[in-house]
What we know:
Layout: E1 7-11, H1 15-26, E2 30-34, H2 40-48, E3 52-56, E4 66-70, E5 74-75, H3 79-85, E6 88-91, H4 98-104, E7 114-117, H5 124-134, E8 141-145, E9 150-156, E10 159-165, E11 169-174, H6 179-186, E12 193-195, H7 199-203, H8 208-211, H9 213-218, H10 220-226, H11 238-257, H12 265-273, H13 280-285, H14 302-305, H15 307-322, H16 327-340, H17 344-347, H18 364-367
Parallel strand pairs: 1-2, 1-6, 2-5, 3-10, 6-7, 7-8, 11-12
Antiparallel strand pairs: 3-4, 8-11, 9-10
Helix pairs in contact: 11-15, 15-16
Amino acid sequence: MTTFxxxxxxxxxxxxxxxxxxxxxLAGNRVIVSDRESRTDAIINLAxxxxxxxxxxxxxxxxxxxxxxxxxxxxxxxxxxxxAEADVIILMTPQTAYEETINAFNGALRADHTILLCPxxxxxxxxxxxxxAKYGVQGVLVAQTASMxxxxxTTGPHELxxxxxxxxxxxxxxxxxxxxxxxxxxxxxxxxxVPTANALExxxxxxxxxxxxxxxxxxxxxxxxxxxYIYNAYEITPTIARVIHAVDEERxxxxxxxxxxxxxxxxxxxxxxxxxxxxxxxxxxxxxxxxNVKSPPDLRYRYLSEDVPTQLVPAVAIARALGVETPLLExxxxxxxxxxxxxxxxxxxxxxxLGLPGLNAETISSVL
Length: 368
């Protein structure tokens, strides 16, 4: 009988989720893959396959560069079972689906669980902690990363190419006093985790607020007419790069107001991918993981529909509470509202949804 070091339940069937599930299995863990009801077809197809054909092109992944038919991944449509069996639950669903997912666990959450959100938006750890408490579970260790640990590409039915792995991965824990506990629990399988001061600082240690929505908005006409098409380096031109850089300066200002020392967007990409360049435009063009990828298929893609309500809206809310001006971030939300004919200010993660009403610079450390 096989004895596993740890049981991970990966909730999500995106390329990034399957890449992480594959690496955790290669490391000798028991790995369960499940997903939400809306993704049942993906689960059924994965369960029917003889295995996951993994073409790993990244030396830093467990096992190195290799082609292997990975067997032994457990696949289930039952989210409650996946949660109950796990030592560590990794949520790789859209951040907007956290409440739906926690509800589907159907009472299986336990106080000894570790929940890792990959990534967790801006304040996802707070949202999930409050949801767990709502369902009567206190003391769950909840953490979030600033981005996905690995990048994958589907190359055929049940075929996955692993194309990137973050060299370092910022992680934030709620409450922050449990950060070292989280690092100790996960260090064997996630040695690349770099602790941040708290979950909010981790959520702001991401290039996504500029890197994801701005190219979509500025390339909207082509995406709507032709998507998906080859979208090398997010189709960032020098002009788009200048706008992203300006948006990123607002992100950095929020981090400073929280008492942190932010890395600029070029530094973040250097930390993640080991690339350099004379400016942000040159750096982003040098990220190999951004080559030969597809553009969003339409303007409802997650770079707007998920990132705006769970990253930009809370960023602006926190900025306002701390007296930081963010006109470009606010304009980006306004554009998304008009494009999607909705009000992300209302449906996004405001301070009340994060459990942070009355947030200010004096109270921030005691709250987190």
